[in-house]
Amino acid sequence: MNVGDAMMIAIFLIYGGAFLVMAGALWAGIERTAKLGIASHLGILIVFGVTHGLSDLVDAVLRVPGIPADPTGPLAAVRLTLLALSFLALLWFGLSVLIEDRASFRSFVYLGLIASVALAAGLAALFAEEASLGSVQGAERAARLLLGLPGGLLSAVAFGKVAARSRLLGLERCFAGASVAAVGMAAYAVLAGGVATGYPDVVRVLGLPVQMHRMMGAITITAGCMMMLRGLAVSRPTATAEER
Prior knowledge:
Layout: H1 3-31, H2 42-62, H3 74-98, H4 102-128, H5 133-168, H6 172-194, E1 204-205, E2 208-209, H7 210-232
Antiparallel strand pairs: 1-2
């Protein structure tokens, strides 16, 4: 293994880990709130963080010497399926915040579940038919442009909506956090959806792998969400002497 390969493995490990940390931090932050408003929707963003993080960890494994690295093989299929499902969850999150009618949202949830199954089945069929590298990379580009880009942009708009409402209600910490998350999400949408890459290719932006820039977007989103959740945290009643 040369230095360049080792560095890319490290980058993907850190990049995937950033999304898993995002999911864990959101989970802990939600537990400190009344789970109302935006906090009730962030569970979908946790699904995004877990699936996206696992996808990048699989990408790191594919680059380890001795691991079958066929971009049309079963491990690559797992990577692409997780990636596509993560983008679908991101789209789902944005719409869940923007669609206020609960009946319409429930219908959307069912459609989202059906779409998830169909997406996974379609990708499994693609790999089962021993598709060419070009077809697989084309499928990834389509997932990024048709799911990742609109999902990220809709999620950025959703955070912007939360920021606007928080300002009207005088919730300055929530306003600041949602604003930061909106900026981070918009940047991530462009870098992850608009800059279409496909395993095993590595695209560089400003001299660095694009994954480094995407990771900064993930960190910004996480920081913004944590600021927002701290503003929504509720105090726990202290146990009385009798309860102790």
